[in-house]
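Last lecture ended with a question: if I hand you only a sequence, what can you say about the shape of the protein? Today we answer it with a concrete record. The protein is Alanine dehydrogenase. Below, first the input exactly as provided, then the predicted structure, then a couple of comments.
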Amino acid sequence: MRIGIPKEIKNNENRVAITPAGVMTLLHAGHEVVVEQDAGIGSGFTNEEYQEAGAQVVATAREAWGQEMVMKVKEPLKEEYDYFYEGLILFTYLHLAAEPELTKALIERKVIGIAYETVQSSNGSLPLLTPMSEVAGRMSAQIGAQFLEKSRGGMGILLGGIPGVRRGKVTVIGGGVVGTNAAKIASGLGADVTIVDLNPERLRQLDDIFGSSINTLMSNPLNIQEAIQESDLVIGAVLIPGAKAPKLVTEEMVSNMMEGSVIVDVAIDQGGIFETTDRITTHDNPTYEKHGVLHYAVANMPGAVPRTSTIGLTNVTVPYALQLANKGYQQAAKDNEPLCKGINTINGYVTYKAVAESHQLDYADIHDLLSQ
Ligand SMILES: NC(=O)C1=CN([C@@H]2O[C@H](COP(=O)(O)OP(=O)(O)OC[C@H]3O[C@@H](n4cnc5c(N)ncnc54)[C@H](O)[C@@H]3O)[C@@H](O)[C@H]2O)C=CC1
Ligand SMILES: CC(=O)C(=O)O
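The predicted structure:
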């Protein structure tokens, strides 16, 4: 199969969908890889390294997009929809529940859209989301700590406090991969951390992992309201796979938060869990203020640490890309149920229920379509 790797064009998105090592893996299996010029530069991989690994380096995005399968990092932007064609296999983050126009474009052009974030193992884990959630979770505590500084717009709190001065309070809503990694870094910085989750079993696991160094709370509106009112930093880390994020924090709750406190809504890529995170921000202009609270809502946080993120991402995506390329997407999906769950659009149909529900579109069962 011929596999194209375009350069990412989102604001400050320096990741790339494949490393030279990944190119070699695909080449050894008999495939061809076409990389857009400078696609890897932001992650520290030169055109020469891709050529030495056996890739063809091309001058334009159109050439990279003109292959049988395209691997990317971020969901395509409007400028890229024009490259879609019937039968293209697009393997990337898609976050379609929060992207009505992209969903429409994929359906109209009959693209086979396979979303990294909905590839799901039988134990419910999301293997192609996990490494980026680890990165974003760790970053969220660092970023929150920075924006609490007075010069960055925050109230001037040091998360770890000092002897004689109280530590900062951090509430993390959602105790999965992002939440756990946020809590690790925040408690490492010395903050007083509370994790809120809906799943009692997950709360038990968190209690086993962290012991008495963090607090756990059952997710309900009252607990959330009380926890965030006294928090300096609140991190949004809830996910219902494939679905639009639930708005768990109302505007009224935000209006009762302390002046100069900070919200980092990591779940913004699925629409965000705060009523007040009503827009996506960029690395260039990452925050805005509402009700005296600083809001950070960047949807590609790992793009800021591209070297770590690209290697972490491609470690997990390349084995799946290899299956798609070796067998074709139909057989690969039939043989591998977790990969099958990644298929969100095919031949003009939406095959991920939560995406169809988000946009009131008809849903088609992928298994029925694959057996036709
Ligand atoms: N902004 C960015 O750059 C990035 C964003 N993300 C996003 O971060 C979000 C979280 O991802 P993961 O941690 O990997 O997901 P996960 O599936 O590991 O964790 C989600 C957690 O939310 C909990 N949850 C569900 N409903 C809840 C509720 N009503 N109240 C409290 N907790 C609830 C679940 O029990 C689970 O523990 C996703 O939207 C993901 O796409 C991930 C990486 C980068
Ligand atoms: C998960 C995602 O969308 C990202 O890493 O940018």
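Comments.
1. The chain is about 35% helix and 15% strand.
2. The domain at 2-118+305-371 is CATH 3.40.50.720 (Rossmann fold).
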